[in-house]
Amino acid sequence: MNKNTYPRSLIPLGSLMVFLLVSFISLSEGKAGPVKCELVFSLHTWSFFYKSGHGTGTVSCDNGQKADVKVRTKGGGITLGASDTTEGHGNFTGATDIKQLFGDYSSAQIGAGVVKTANAQTLGKGKITLNITEIGKGANIGFSFGSFNLTEAKASPTTPPVPSE
Fold first, then answer.
1. Is the pTM of this model over 0.90?
2. Fewer beta carbons below 10 Å: N end or C end of the chain?
């Protein structure tokens, strides 16, 4: 066997393997499609011209991504009241990854309620839209403008157990 012939016979096989590898990498790095994500949250708000609220929730996406979140609202307007949202739900559109969902959304709200409160609104952040519905209890009246902020809740560090003697 001529030693120059043996390596040349592997060239077509090697070329085919490189082509398949490059094709696979190109397909796997393609642009991701839209992802469907849902927010479930609870929120406590108060307002007396200035409006403020804080709460917690969970974002779950159909691609398996999930995150616990902190919810903050800030704003102002002609508004008065306090309420506790016990059933908050939201649906996101326009995102390809859960990380795009964190940040400030513009909000405008008109509402009135005594004892039981309900609210629905559409919030925007660039190309991402968040449609939310809230059901809760409290009393509020008026209109306000401001922001609805989602941040990823950081897991608290756990301390290792202390060995007992």
1. no
2. C
* Sign (positive or negative) of CA dihedral 149, 131, 107, 49: negative
> DSSP for the chain?
--TTHHHHHHHHHHHHHHHHHHHHHHHHTSPP----EEEEEEEEEEEEEEEEEEEEEEEEETTS-EEEEEEEEEEEEEEEEEEEEEEEEEEEES-SSGGGG-EEEEEEEEEEEEEEEEEEEEEEETTEEEEEEEEEEEEEEEEEEEEEEEEEPPPPPPPPPPPP-
Is residue 63 in some structural domain?
A: yes
User: How does pLDDT run along the chain (165 residues), one tens digit per residue?
Assistant: 555 554 555 445 444 444 444 344 434 444 567 999 999 999 999 999 898 999 999 999 999 999 999 999 999 888 898 999 999 999 999 999 999 999 999 988 777 777 787 788 899 999 999 999 999 899 888 888 899 999 999 864 444 455 555
> Residue 51 belongs to what domain range?
37-152
| Domains held by the chain: number | 1
Looking at the DSSP bridge assignments, the partners of residue 64 are: none
- Quick one: how far is CA 79 from the chain centroid? 28
